[in-house]
Q: What sequence folds into this?
Protein backbone atom coordinates (compact mmCIF):
# COMPACT_ATOMS: atom_id res chain seq x y z
CA UNK A 1 0.00 0.00 0.00
CA UNK A 2 1.51 3.35 -1.01
CA UNK A 3 2.32 5.99 1.55
CA UNK A 4 -0.22 8.74 2.07
CA UNK A 5 2.16 11.16 3.78
CA UNK A 6 4.38 13.67 1.96
CA UNK A 7 8.00 12.68 2.60
CA UNK A 8 9.12 16.32 2.47
CA UNK A 9 6.72 18.08 4.85
CA UNK A 10 4.88 15.13 6.46
CA UNK A 11 1.48 16.42 5.29
CA UNK A 12 -1.03 13.56 5.53
CA UNK A 13 -3.69 12.71 2.98
CA UNK A 14 -6.23 12.26 5.78
CA UNK A 15 -5.63 15.87 6.91
CA UNK A 16 -5.96 17.13 3.33
CA UNK A 17 -9.28 15.30 2.92
CA UNK A 18 -10.63 16.46 6.30
CA UNK A 19 -9.87 20.09 5.49
CA UNK A 20 -10.82 19.72 1.80
CA UNK A 21 -7.50 21.28 0.77
CA UNK A 22 -6.38 21.74 -2.83
CA UNK A 23 -3.33 19.51 -2.43
CA UNK A 24 -2.41 16.52 -4.57
CA UNK A 25 0.15 13.77 -3.92
CA UNK A 26 2.61 12.50 -6.51
CA UNK A 27 4.60 9.26 -6.63
CA UNK A 28 8.23 9.10 -7.73
CA UNK A 29 8.63 9.12 -11.51
CA UNK A 30 9.92 6.18 -13.55
CA UNK A 31 12.17 8.28 -15.77
CA UNK A 32 15.78 7.89 -14.52
CA UNK A 33 16.89 11.54 -14.83
CA UNK A 34 13.76 12.89 -13.21
CA UNK A 35 13.77 10.22 -10.50
CA UNK A 36 17.40 11.05 -9.63
CA UNK A 37 16.50 14.74 -9.23
CA UNK A 38 13.62 13.77 -6.92
CA UNK A 39 15.96 11.57 -4.87
CA UNK A 40 18.42 14.45 -4.52
CA UNK A 41 15.64 16.77 -3.35
CA UNK A 42 13.89 14.31 -1.02
CA UNK A 43 16.81 12.25 0.26
CA UNK A 44 14.99 8.98 -0.46
CA UNK A 45 13.69 7.09 -3.46
CA UNK A 46 10.29 6.04 -2.13
CA UNK A 47 7.12 7.74 -0.97
CA UNK A 48 4.99 10.58 -2.28
CA UNK A 49 5.50 14.34 -2.51
CA UNK A 50 2.63 16.80 -2.14
CA UNK A 51 1.88 19.50 -4.70
CA UNK A 52 3.10 22.24 -2.33
CA UNK A 53 6.70 21.37 -3.31
CA UNK A 54 6.23 21.98 -7.06
CA UNK A 55 6.09 25.28 -8.92
CA UNK A 56 2.96 26.06 -10.95
CA UNK A 57 4.69 25.40 -14.28
CA UNK A 58 5.25 21.74 -13.27
CA UNK A 59 1.52 20.99 -13.58
CA UNK A 60 -0.32 20.24 -16.78
CA UNK A 61 -2.92 23.05 -17.02
CA UNK A 62 -1.39 24.74 -13.96
CA UNK A 63 -2.74 24.74 -10.43
CA UNK A 64 -6.23 25.77 -11.52
CA UNK A 65 -7.03 22.24 -12.69
CA UNK A 66 -9.09 20.03 -10.38
CA UNK A 67 -6.56 19.26 -7.64
CA UNK A 68 -7.71 15.64 -7.31
CA UNK A 69 -6.73 14.94 -10.92
CA UNK A 70 -3.69 17.19 -11.30
CA UNK A 71 -0.84 15.69 -13.24
CA UNK A 72 2.80 16.65 -13.46
CA UNK A 73 4.82 17.02 -16.62
CA UNK A 74 7.40 14.27 -17.08
CA UNK A 75 10.23 16.70 -16.36
CA UNK A 76 8.66 18.05 -13.14
CA UNK A 77 10.94 18.08 -10.10
CA UNK A 78 10.04 19.25 -6.58
CA UNK A 79 11.98 22.43 -5.83
CA UNK A 80 10.10 24.15 -3.00
CA UNK A 81 11.43 23.16 0.40
CA UNK A 82 10.18 26.08 2.45
CA UNK A 83 7.88 25.18 5.33
CA UNK A 84 4.43 24.62 3.89
CA UNK A 85 1.66 26.61 5.55
CA UNK A 86 -1.96 25.57 5.37
CA UNK A 87 -4.40 28.19 6.64
CA UNK A 88 -1.54 29.96 8.45
CA UNK A 89 -0.34 26.80 10.22
CA UNK A 90 3.15 25.51 9.47
CA UNK A 91 3.11 21.86 8.45
CA UNK A 92 6.82 21.33 9.15
CA UNK A 93 7.80 21.04 12.77
CA UNK A 94 10.43 23.43 14.09
CA UNK A 95 13.00 20.64 14.39
CA UNK A 96 12.25 18.94 11.08
CA UNK A 97 15.18 17.80 8.92
CA UNK A 98 13.95 20.02 6.08
CA UNK A 99 14.38 23.19 8.12
CA UNK A 100 17.70 22.02 9.51
CA UNK A 101 19.00 21.35 6.01
CA UNK A 102 17.72 24.75 4.89
CA UNK A 103 19.65 26.50 7.66
CA UNK A 104 22.65 24.28 6.96
CA UNK A 105 22.54 25.42 3.34
CA UNK A 106 22.58 29.04 4.48
CA UNK A 107 25.54 28.31 6.77
CA UNK A 108 27.38 26.52 3.95
CA UNK A 109 26.85 29.45 1.59
CA UNK A 110 28.03 31.87 4.24
CA UNK A 111 31.12 29.70 4.87
CA UNK A 112 31.88 29.62 1.13
CA UNK A 113 31.66 33.41 1.00
CA UNK A 114 33.97 33.68 4.01
CA UNK A 115 36.52 31.37 2.42
CA UNK A 116 36.45 33.34 -0.80
CA UNK A 117 37.34 36.57 1.01
CA UNK A 118 41.08 37.12 1.26
CA UNK A 119 42.20 35.84 4.67
CA UNK A 120 44.30 38.99 5.20
CA UNK A 121 41.28 41.22 4.93
CA UNK A 122 38.89 41.72 7.79
CA UNK A 123 35.92 42.34 5.57
CA UNK A 124 32.60 41.49 7.12
CA UNK A 125 29.95 39.86 5.00
CA UNK A 126 27.07 42.14 4.28
CA UNK A 127 23.49 41.08 3.81
CA UNK A 128 23.83 42.18 0.18
CA UNK A 129 26.66 39.69 -0.42
CA UNK A 130 24.60 36.87 1.06
CA UNK A 131 21.58 37.84 -1.05
CA UNK A 132 23.74 37.93 -4.18
CA UNK A 133 25.12 34.49 -3.34
CA UNK A 134 21.63 33.10 -2.74
CA UNK A 135 20.52 34.67 -6.04
CA UNK A 136 23.44 33.03 -7.83
CA UNK A 137 22.56 29.68 -6.26
CA UNK A 138 18.93 30.07 -7.30
CA UNK A 139 20.02 30.95 -10.84
CA UNK A 140 22.20 27.84 -10.97
CA UNK A 141 19.30 25.68 -9.75
CA UNK A 142 16.96 27.19 -12.35
CA UNK A 143 19.52 26.47 -15.06
CA UNK A 144 19.77 22.86 -13.86
CA UNK A 145 15.97 22.52 -13.95
CA UNK A 146 15.89 23.92 -17.51
CA UNK A 147 18.64 21.52 -18.54
CA UNK A 148 16.73 18.67 -16.92
CA UNK A 149 13.54 19.72 -18.74
CA UNK A 150 15.33 19.61 -22.08
CA UNK A 151 16.73 16.12 -21.34
CA UNK A 152 13.41 14.65 -20.30
CA UNK A 153 11.20 16.47 -22.79
CA UNK A 154 7.53 16.93 -22.17
CA UNK A 155 6.61 13.36 -21.27
CA UNK A 156 3.81 13.07 -18.77
CA UNK A 157 3.65 10.59 -15.93
A:
Amino acid sequence: MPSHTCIVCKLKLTFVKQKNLAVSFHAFPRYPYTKQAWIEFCGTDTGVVCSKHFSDDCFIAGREENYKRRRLFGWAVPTIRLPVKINGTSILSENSPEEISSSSLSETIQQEISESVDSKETTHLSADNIILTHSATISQLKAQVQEHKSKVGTDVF
